[in-house]
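stage 2 :: seqdesign
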């Protein structure tokens, strides 16, 4: 893991296929299954408004015991600075994903801590409405826009809205990705990483290792070069 100034190496050096982040991990079994399937990064949702919310105090021990070669990213939505710094200052997580309406100034303050920050933006059907250049973050994550949710909808956004844009940070694509459509997303957007959650679940909050494996096989079969 590198600090935010070395943005192209937040997960590792760019390679011929994207890194895979499996988000919404809620239990040890799912984490271990995702690792066996080949996940590069695990995401843990600490936002209490999420259906995949994880109470950190109840799960900290097993999260800390996971293999260090698989990176651990905490997700927060509109946290206070104190809340964000508590996550960053711990040894539990390798970085922080901000999935709310956090400002440039807020991200700047957190970036000074030295751990990578990922800033999520939700893409609307008309009018993208975000500017990534000023954000001092390690990577930009794009997700589907919903009026009622900050993410985890299982729906994709219109990739053509950004396929011609130049994103000035490593790009992570999320929202409705499946083993069937991820190759198309990779060819169109050439992302640094892809983020999956809903499509690799057997039931809400329960991941299925075979689905994760199928997703990762599709990613690795699609080159971004």
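stage 2 :: out
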């Amino acid at each position: 893991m590198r600090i935010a100034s070395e943005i192209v190496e937040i997960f590792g050096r760019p390679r011929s296929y994207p890194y895979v982040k499996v988000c919404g991990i809620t239990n040890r079994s799912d984490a271990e299954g995702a690792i066996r399937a080949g996940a590069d990064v695990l995401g843990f949702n600490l936002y209490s408004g999420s259906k995949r919310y994880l109470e950190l105090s109840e799960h900290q021990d097993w999260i800390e015991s996971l293999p260090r070669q698989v990176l651990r990213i905490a997700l927060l939505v509109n946290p206070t600075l104190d809340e964000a710094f508590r996550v960053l200052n711990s040894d539990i997580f390798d970085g922080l994903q901000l999935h709310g309406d956090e400002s440039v100034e807020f991200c700047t303050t957190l970036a000074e801590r030295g751990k990578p920050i990922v800033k999520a933006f939700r893409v609307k059907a008309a009018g993208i409405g975000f500017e990534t250049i000023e954000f001092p973050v390690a990577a930009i994550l794009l997700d589907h826009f919903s009026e009622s949710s900050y993410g985890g909808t299982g729906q994709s956004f219109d990739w053509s809205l950004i396929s011609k844009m130049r994103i000035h940070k490593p790009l992570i694509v999320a929202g409705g990705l499946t083993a069937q459509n991820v190759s198309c997303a990779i060819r169109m957007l050439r992302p640094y990483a892809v983020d999956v959650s809903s499509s690799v679940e057997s039931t809400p909050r329960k991941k299925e290792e075979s689905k994760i494996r199928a997703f990762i096989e599709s990613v690795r079969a699609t080159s971004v070069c």
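stage 3 :: structure notes
- The CA atoms of residues 46 and 99 lie 11 Å apart.
- The radius of gyration is 16 Å.
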